[in-house]
Queue: 2 jobs
Job 1
Amino acid sequence: MKRIIIDREKCDGCLNCNIACISAHEEGSNFYTVNLQSPDAETRNFIKFDVGKGYLPIFCRHCDEPECVLSCMSGALEKDPVSGHVQYDENKCAACYMCVMNCPFGVLKPDKKNRTKVIKCDFCDDKPDGPSCVKACPKQAIVVKEVNL
Amino acid sequence: MNSNFSCKTCASADKKLETFISNLSVDTSHHRMEGQSIKCGFGLQGICCRLCSNGPCRITPDGPKGVCGATADTIVARNFLRAVSAGSGCYIHIVENTALLLKKTAANKGAIKGKIALAKLAEIFEVNETDEHVCAEKIADLVLADLYKPDYIKMELVEKMAYKPRFDRWKELGILPGGAKSEVFAGVVKTSTNLNSDPVDMYLNCLKLGISTGLYGLTLTNLLNDVMLGEPSIRLAPVGLRVIDTDYINIMITGHQHSMFAYLQERLIQEDVIEKAKAVGAKGFKLVGCTCVGQDLQLRGEHYKDVFNGHAGNNFTSEAILATGAIDAVLSEFNCTLPGIEPICDELKIKQICLDDVSKKANAEMKPFVFEEKESQSNEIIASVIEAYQARRGVVALNLDAEHGNDDTLTGVSEGSLKSFLGGTWKPLIDLIVKGEIKGIAGVVGCSSLTAGGHDVLTVNLVKELIAKDILVLSAGCSSGGLENVGLMSPQAASLAGPKLRAVCESLGIPPVLNFGPCLAIGRLELVATELAEAIGVDLPQLPLVLSAPQWLEEQALADGAFGLALGLPLHLGLPPFVTGSSVAVQVFTQDMLNLTGGQLIIDDNAQSAAQTLDSIIEKKRQELNI
Amino acid sequence: MKIVIIGASAAGISAAKTIKVSEPETEVVIISKEDSVHSRCMLHKFLGHQRDAKGISFIADDFFETAGITWLNNTTVISLDPDKKTVTTHDNQTISYDKLLIATGAAYFIPPIPGLRESKNVYGFRDLNDAKLLDRECQTAKNAVVIGAGLVGMDAAVALLERGLNVTVIEMTKDVMSLQLDHQAARAYQQLFEEAGAEFILEDKVVSVDVNDVGRGTTIHLASGKAVPADVIVIAAGVRPAFNFTQGSGIKTNHAILVGDDLKTNLKDIYAAGDVTGIAGIWPNAMKQGRVAAINMLGEKLLYEDRYALKNTVNFYGLTTLSLGNINPEPEENCEILIREDRHNYQKVVLKNGIVLGVIMQGDIGGTGFWQYLIKNKIDISGKNKDVFSLSFADFYDLDQQTGEYKYAV
Ligand SMILES: Cc1cc2nc3c(=O)[nH]c(=O)nc-3n(C[C@H](O)[C@H](O)[C@H](O)COP(=O)(O)OP(=O)(O)OC[C@H]3O[C@@H](n4cnc5c(N)ncnc54)[C@H](O)[C@@H]3O)c2cc1C
Ligand code: SF4
Ligand code: SF4
Ligand code: SF4
Ligand code: SF4
């Protein structure tokens, strides 16, 4: 399975990964035009800061045993048996947010605008040129690697 | 954006240059582009603020305002006005030095080579002096007096220089500039912490800075230089790396202040100095043109045949020129003197001397130009260049490219030389436009950048599209450096033009892209436009004339752009000037400006569609003029 | 091997999936008394007409075929013979198994109140059938009464409001959802429901129901003396694990089927998972138990350690709340209670000796998943030297260098 591997020492907190993620989910947008002030602008990855440790990138791990999938009562969250990525189907989701409660790493969140869906990393739909965040990281703090399940 | 370049160096419109650079063993901007290919999204949108210690604040979905409460609109406007102020400051610095030099030259009864320019200025400024030195000094004094006014006292020459309908509109909008230096100061103050937060007010301020930059920094710098250095005259000249002649001691010049070299360039061709060169095995000295000051020399090259070998390249060609190994010294007085030349100079033992501390390079010798000491300074410079020549020639490997560039670039085009080429009147050009033989005019100006596809890529592609649509292109700035090296300024480029423009060019023996030289010459384009408008009897926004700075690079270009918008012209940029994070900015620049000045910003990094947009604007203006 | 699973819901389906993924050749038979597989947690969406029956399914249409699972729907198991290793169904089928999983969940319970059990218009809100019956009532009813303001009662109420009925909710305790919320958090929801037209009668008790001559309850009488008119009544006063059919099998039970950490019952080859074990009454735990039981049935050892059940999320009218652990401690427990409030949030953390016992996060619940880990694992946060409300996973951040998965640094 492909996973975004994090080297937190390299992260500079520039938030380009946030912008890339928002842009990847705003149809037709690019770094110049992505509307960061739109109510729909939501990043699926997060950068936290700790005085002692520095910047801490929080990205969905597409876990081997995803707690979010186990908690999902609508079938909206499923681990794709081929890609290994945990995919989310907005149309199935009941917005119960058991998954938000159950992701041990605090990756999931309700959508800001209506609280009718979950904001979750979709690995940029497994598009061939890879995740947008990874491409946008100037520090290579996040890179895609193949990991064994 | 996040374009990843496949090869190590970035693309160039000039394929020979691209190959030359990709084979270099020294590091250039073209190499560094890859390492910088990932851009900060907040920076690109202009929504990062570092004005106070609560920052840097960035506009994000979770942080829609800065700590102080500044919105994206305020942050973008502040950043933009700061940039325009800085850009204006650069050009005003140039005109100030030029005026001071003219004043001293005149006071010391120095040579006045541009009699026509002097007469023209005297007429505009209403100076009635028969003695040309007295006249020149008075002109310089008038310019300086304006530059040094406070911001609350309007500059007096604006009304004399500006086209009347424009002046009236500016007055209505309240954007007539006060003293040009003070206006820069005001722009900086306004944009500091917790001061102005009104984006519209700040954009109007940009227009004001645009006017002072354009009329003084651009137009007047040209004319004052013409007085001292001689007017441009049309001729064919060699360009590209081929102009470097290893038989000579070669000095590359970078900057924008041609008049600072006036004495030195005379001195370099005097017998005793040539003898010194011969004594160390060279035939003499040559200046190798680079960046805008090189363009300036090329423009007036008719007067400097012996010392000037030609223009080798623009801003992002400078590292390649040095990497030939055949340059012995770099003399710089302003931008665009890239920090990237420093390690190359160190490695290739190239002597670096700066004549103006604003462009002091870390490893260069500082020799601030002092008019009164120009004789001794020149001798010292010559001595140290000879020293460098001796130390490096034969030691440093040469890596020339005699194929690069061409020998027949048409240069020396100016408002004056073009008019006399047309027979002393604009009528032939106007007739061609009215008849549709020339559909319209596009001023393609500005710099080269390594974004938007690579070095000169968008500029060259856009120009090819425009001339194919029978639009005559006038170019000024580093854009012309790229255009000339790819041959678009050679008469045979006519074959690339649309059938009508091609026929015009072939019958006149001119290329479809006319070289006005340095970015300062954007001021000359303004003069051409104004004279055309006057001849037809319309205001500037009505002309079938568009501007484009496809690969604008720096703050100066933004100040130029503000001038273009103040003139009421449609202005195309390849990439947005870090404003797209603000909806107000986008609205003001792309829509509201039409009602304010008649100008309009068009952002498009696609040569084809941008050319189409510009073409349709020209068509529309033609219709409105009933031609 | 043949594995029989009774129950086609969270626990049963997750067990079947786990078995088929790791041992596709194992024969799996699922028996369920319902004719569809659906998520009870979405019943209100069905009743509220936001989704049809298919829309509340949590599996793919072709789940059974693709997975190669036999599904006996509309089939109720009525007895179990652990010696012969068979179960018998209401239609007299005898089905043998090598291993059996009991995942029959829970069933609602109607308290013995005069008139209540007798009324024909009293419904539970447990499965699709209940919802369908209620749906039919909604076509004519005007006044609905929901007895019990727990999560299920509130689900029913929100759907009935959606259908335009006058809804009265009767609750014994002084707050709605009193297991999950404290007074302040509960008030926020009550207000939203009231704005949507609901009426709440709190701290009151149903004492009797008037039944009319066609057997329908018409008026509900309360301990306070109040009388509430009702066209339809929903009872949401609690559920009981459903294991009637095991009578006489010798299986050990208290109020639920008793299981060890491997989810095995006292009987050979018989396991139980989900609500029927009484460990927890929520979906994620049923899913996980199904998975763990399956792994044990396949002969591997995996212990179910997630007995932690006091957790829930609530989302009504766009107001979201996370509730974990002991959120309403008694004074004698000597807990430290921290509260943080702003325009959009109400947050409460219950601490004892540096250990988090409970949290309520109302408002923004994004990224709050880490709290469960802290509470479940009794992590001491006193060393963090940080405002508890600003804690996040970042404060426990660690990475497995090999796999790139996160770990807790504690
Ligand atoms: C209205 C409502 C809303 C809820 N909302 C939430 C929520 O938001 N979040 C949450 O975590 N939990 C929620 N729950 C609880 C959650 O639905 C249960 O915890 C979960 O369904 C338990 O799953 P289970 O597999 O153990 O049993 P159940 O879901 O109860 O399934 C039992 C299965 O066994 C079958 N069965 C029972 N007896 C027999 C028999 N004798 N013979 C054959 N088949 C039989 C049934 O047909 C059914 O398929 C809600 C419950 C209800 C009723
Ligand atoms: S992979 Fe795509 S969806 Fe996931 S965090 Fe990165 S940009 Fe966002
Ligand atoms: S959301 Fe959380 S639990 Fe689910 S896969 Fe991502 S990291 Fe794992
Ligand atoms: S919120 Fe949606 S995705 Fe998350 S558990 Fe509930 S139904 Fe599944
Ligand atoms: S883009 Fe890379 S360096 Fe920047 S915040 Fe994200 S992970 Fe860190």
Job 2
Amino acid sequence: MSVSFKVNGKAVTVDAPSDMPLLWVLRDVLDLKGTKFGCGVAQCGACTVHLKGVPVRSCQIPVSSLNGLEITTIEGLSTDGTHPLQIAWQEIDVPQCGYCQAGQIMSAAALLEQKKKPTDADIDQAMGGNICRCATYNRIRKAIHRAADIKNGGASTTAPSGAAK
Amino acid sequence: MTISPIVDRRDFLRVIAVAGGGVLFGAYARRLDAAPAGAPLVADPFVPNAFIRIMPDGKVTIIGKNPEGGQGIKTSLPMIIAEELDVDWKMVTVEQAISDQSKYGVQFEGGSLSTPMNYDLMRQIGASARFMLVAAAAKTWGVPDSECTTAHGAVTHAASKRTLPYGKLLATAATITPPEMVPAVNGPPGVSKLALKDPKNFKILGTRVPQVDDKKIVTGKPLFGIDVVVPNMHYAVFEKCAVFGGKVVSANIDRIKAMPGVKAAFVVEGGDALDGLLSGVAIVADSWWHAKTARAQLQITWNEGATAQESSEGYTKRATELSKLPAEKVVRKDGDIDAALKGAAHTAEGAYYYPFISHATLEPQNCTANFKDGKLEIWAPTQMPQPGRQLVSKTMGIAENDITIHLTRIGGGFGRRLKNDYMVEAAWIARQAGLPVKLLWTREDDMHHDHYRQAGYYWLKGGVDAKGALVAWRNHFVMDSVAANQFPARFIPNYQLETSALPHGVPIGALRAPGSNGLAFVIQSFIDELAHAAGKDPLQFRIDLLSQTLVASTGPADARIMDAERMKGVLELVREKSGWGKKKLPKGTGMGVAFHFSHAGYFAEVVQATVSAKGVLKIDKVWVAGDIGRQITNLSGAENQGQGAAIDGISEALGQEITINAGRVVQNNFDSYQLIRMPVAPPVEVHFRLTDNPPTGLGEPALPPVIPALCNAIFEATGKRIRSLPIGTQLNG
Ligand code: FES
Ligand code: FES
């Protein structure tokens, strides 16, 4: 079926099987590879995107329900990788393999929209649906706090890519 | 730019010009030997081995030789080269090597070996290039090499106050005779032997350097195997028998071929090796979703084979029977175990068990392959590219030279991708379908067709004397084998290690700290039982044990045998950092300690845990103390590995278990196979003790001790001894 919706502010029309999840529309039809497949059953959070600012598991949203929706993916979180979370993630060097991190950041971004200064309990609550198999949880937590600081006016000290002390 | 070749009749470092006017420093020059002297040398993408490329603008490209799966090696090995090359890290761009061992030496991710095998080699490679740049500057200025120094990617002659950046020295550097090479163990065939930097002058090593791919990761750029796109790419799924190694008898292929989007569907006969190409049905479609949808209509009759009756329950029953029989093998026998147990002041006894577990890398297994004109091109997230090439070559009858393997970033390895089953499947399917194909497993495929961490059953007896010294230890291990000098062998005068085999049909593979990740739980928990039997402080009891007179080593000499002094060092460090014995803990809270030596790394860890009256476990904190030699390559990466390993170990202990029923895996996905999540993950403090020993790896050795440290903490908190993993619901009620 043919559906029209918005991804990262751009209108798109795609022709895809009605039961194809948004995850695969993004990855294989629109070639937006940032959103990841981990489980396909809403258990890992690797496929997290925003639907009008709310974090959702894109592996659970079929094409048939996409008409008119506004979706934001990791590629659309900022135009140039300068969302406070993206800065904090690099500053603190959060990733190990990195596979879960787009989903983590999308969940965290929705949290920061709701809470200016999230507590550890808020973070537990908001991030519990995102698995990091490499277990970078300590740094994810630290980076969310750091991003909240940056967002609230704290200085960012992001290092140039590939180099930092 | 074209520069003259170095006339190079030995295995010397070489310099060649590359497109764009840069100079490329590599390690050997076998092909150049054959080149006629004086022939112009231009960019040649086939020229073997290049780790460094310097451009006229001073930008430096360094090749990361090994596969990157989250252990940080794509950052840390180039850091070592950059250090000796004496450039600033911000001048460096890192490029991932393709799989080519003739250029880069052995390339793999495993065994925490990338650092120990490459540390000296990477230094030499950086120093070789620096040597030539210094010589080029000296020649330009007509001064001795020895009067020139380097820093920040430039050569300086202090006496005459002259400085030239590397980028201005390229043409001259290309005329310098490279330094002589000596054979390197495990590396490329030869590297130069040069004076290296005094570590106290290191500017990059030992600092915190974020991973070179961080920006791409946080902005969602394609990096991983699953992200690969090639022209005209199609998508494949592959259904194998739920019973390991079962074979297709028949399948409704015609029905599948008629499904929307399907381009090809066929039976793959496959072979018998569980880590090779197995029997199954392949479906190739215009989208992965179409392939997966078609797969739901598959009807296959299987010949499930001989293991279809096996079950976890059956293994346990058989192991228990074996425990009551005399052991099949006595692996090691020191002193007189029976007499010592009889004469001991206090004894303890325990039956321990840990289950099969799955790697569950977050990126499911996948591979992209294209077969064209007799040649295969492969894009694979593999930890072991060369054995993958050999497997594909042997299975498909394609010469190794005709197989190109691109190394993608790996969405978690943990040992899963030491196997290349997904690679040979993708290659086979692409050739038979006549299309470029990306094969992607579902999470369920991944959980059902892993090469699992081996399960293990142990029956232990131990004794301490009246002074509280550990004098007797008997271990009957039922499953496979264990090394004769595995700790606590050598430290206990009356020691007997026995094994009995329990054959089964479950495919087994290395999982992060293989062997150790289960063994440490058993040994360090039982040591705790004996410490309590002796009425001693568990940490001091361990130090005392490590101070006992050594029994001679038996069996083959092992260079990686544990040094008790280094282990005592990390135990003391973790004692200090955790405040062991100094804190007044509330009721229901306890601290546990454990240590383990693996992959040449020394780790002692303390866990503090609280168990509520209702049996709810909260892990308050973990302290990790490690000794991996004299130099931490990248402090940021090292801390991340230490934290990740500790939390990963806790994850295994809390909830991970693969059970077998009717010859197949019961768990399907992350709902039935529970990985640790944010609310449960404790804060982890990581400390290193630098000792004057060669730098060793860190991916694995920090994991094993955390599991017994947690179980020992639970004992302190509740008096309940965990002898079987996972902990699961054992604390409830
Ligand atoms: S892939 Fe959607 S939650 Fe795991
Ligand atoms: S960084 Fe590997 S899964 Fe999170």
